[in-house]
Design brief:
Blueprint: H1 17-20, H2 24-45, H3 47-56, H4 77-82, E1 98-101, E2 111-114, H5 116-133, E3 140-143, H6 151-163, E4 166-169, H7 175-185, E5 189-192, H8 194-206, E6 218-222, H9 228-238, E7 241-248, E8 253-259, E9 267-269, E10 274-279, E11 293-299, E12 310-316, E13 318-319, E14 331-332, E15 337-338, E16 343-345, E17 348-350, H10 352-359, E18 365-376, E19 379-388, H11 396-414, E20 419-423, E21 438-440, H12 442-445
Parallel strand pairs: 3-4, 3-5, 5-6, 6-7, 18-21, 19-20
Antiparallel strand pairs: 1-2, 7-8, 8-9, 9-14, 10-11, 11-12, 12-15, 13-14, 16-17, 18-19
Helix pairs in contact: 2-3, 5-6, 7-8, 8-9, 10-11
This protein binds 5'-O-[hydroxy(phenylacetyl)phosphoryl]adenosine (DLL).
5'-O-[hydroxy(phenylacetyl)phosphoryl]adenosine binds next to helix 6, strand 7, strand 8 and strand 12.
Length: 446
């Protein structure tokens, strides 16, 4: 009999177990202390916050308990743009070790910055996230998040190094090379947007490489909304556990919240560093736990760019249920989409991720899609462009029939009437990072 014990993956490997399993009361006491410090810090050092607090008639000293946060004004993306580039920073520019920025497709980019301590915290939280996903020191992590001004690449990179992993800093693109190196280096973890992971799987297929046979154990997938159906599809195609990670540049980058690989159900929000609220996006009133609304985040430890009640625009709900992994942190359930990405088609609210849930795994169809929104007189119309599976219907009649079936399912599951166009394999654009899910022709028509 072999003396070597069979390898068993630990159920709950934690990077910072003392912090991650802190009793709730201790956690909330820590949050309160850190929140007070943060409010003092912004009031003293950021003219924008001082003005906003004064206008709202609140002072940092008015915060006696965590619920008092509701008395403080919200921060929105426009505040960052209005104070472009460095006006929201709470420390002198010389104290910033790094800047990141959004792409700025709609005007000025939003700029975010980090002190040495902020970068240290970020690496720790990303290491914590990776550990919760199932990564362990010594693993090889293939990082296909884009490097550069986008926070995904460098954020995952330093977190993986902090955990003690070997990082392959691929960035996005050059997909055949990605497949080659996944094969040659035998990575255990793949960091990518879910749409790019799908692209990698498809290219691997075309190269005759069976990714499922490689040592890959987990996928660190986030930066865009995705569905449970896509999770199952990616797990089947890549032979790994697909785990959801959430973050945003304004708050930190990747690693604000993350699923644990045991439950794969809701993302533990790292509450020792962030305070999470769910508010009604219409009335802006806090909602009871469990009810869906807009996620609002206050940073508790950031030095360079503290954020007070930042409106993320992301729609989700939070759960109080204890998690099998033993972590104390509440869970943010899967983000269904941003309220600015929500389409209203003939009075029905639709998120692209809902359409994705219908399309992925649909018999004879491939999981590549785009939604095209156009105008028909005063009404908004939706056309779903989706691709036939590589071995699916080839003639026009069969494709039209498929289109009818997809249309029927979308109508019965989401309640929205749309046109469906079934395209040939390869005709829907592939993602290299964040997928473009919606083509809005309404603006072009104006
Ligand atoms: O996307 C940070 C990130 C990088 C997260 C890598 C995870 C992995 P931004 O470019 O500022 O930052 O975009 C943030 O992306 O407000 C959400 O709308 C969306 N988003 C991020 N993660 C998820 C997710 C990065 N897991 C915006 N599910 C956020 C759904 C997500 N949406």
């Amino acid at each position: 009999m072999s003396m070597q014990a069979a390898y068993r993956e630990p159920d709950t490997y934690m990077y910072q177990p003392d912090l991650e399993t802190m009793p709730r009361a201790a956690l909330e006491a820590l949050q309160l202390q850190r929140l007070k410090q943060t409010l003092d810090h912004v009031y003293a050092n950021v003219p924008h916050y001082r003005r906003k607090f004064d206008q709202a008639g609140v002072k940092p000293a008015d915060l006696k308990g965590l619920p008092d946060i509701a008395r403080f004004p919200f921060t929105v993306k426009a505040d960052l743009r209005d104070n472009y580039p460095f006006g929201m920073f709470a420390v002198p520019r010389e104290k910033l070790l790094r800047l990141h920025a959004s792409s700025g497709t709609t005007g000025k980019p939003t700029v975010v910055g980090y002190t040495a301590r902020d970068l240290d915290t970020w690496a720790d939280l990303m290491a914590r996230s990776l550990a919760s996903i199932g990564a362990k020191p010594g693993d090889i992590i293939h990082n296909a998040y884009g490097y550069g001004l986008f926070t995904g690449g460098l954020g995952a990179h330093y977190g993986a190094e902090r955990l003690g992993c070997t990082v392959v800093p691929m960035s996005g693109g050059g997909t055949e090379r990605q497949v080659q190196l996944l094969q040659d280096f035998g990575a255990h973890g793949l960091c990518a947007t879910p749409s790019y992971a799908l692209n990698i799987a498809e290219v691997a297929d075309g190269m005759g490489v069976d990714i499922r046979k490689l040592p890959l154990r987990y996928g660190v997938f986030g930066a865009e909304p995705w569905s449970e159906a896509m999770r199952r599809d990616l797990e089947a195609r890549l032979g790994l556990k697909a785990v959801d990670i959430y973050g945003l540049s304004e708050i930190m980058g990747p690693g604000v919240a993350c699923e644990c690989h045991g439950a794969q159900h809701g993302l533990h929000g790292w509450e020792d560093h962030f305070l999470f609220e769910i508010v009604d996006p219409e009335t802006m009133q806090p909602l009871p736990r469990g009810q869906p609304g807009e996620l609002v985040i206050t940073t508790l430890t950031k030095e360079a760019l503290p954020m007070i009640r930042y409106r993320t625009r992301d729609i989700t709900h939070m759960s109080d249920e204890p998690c099998a992994c033993g972590r104390a942190f509440r869970r943010i359930m899967r983000v269904t989409g941003r309220n600015d990405d929500m389409l209203i088609i003939r009075g029905v609210n639709v998120y692209p991720s809902q359409v994705e849930a219908v399309l992925v795994g649909f018999p004879g169809m491939a999981p590549h899609y785009q939604l095209v929104v156009s105008k028909d007189g005063p009404l908004d119309c939706l056309t779903v462009e989706v691709e036939v599976a590589p071995d699916g219907a080839t003639d026009d009649r069969a494709r039209k029939k498929k289109a009818g079936e997809v249309q029927h399912h979308i109508k019965s599951l989401i309640g929205v009437t749309c046109d469906v166009i079934v395209k040939a394999p390869g005709e829907v654009p592939r993602s290299q990072g964040k997928a473009i899910r919606v083509r809005d022709m309404r603006k072009a028509a104006n």
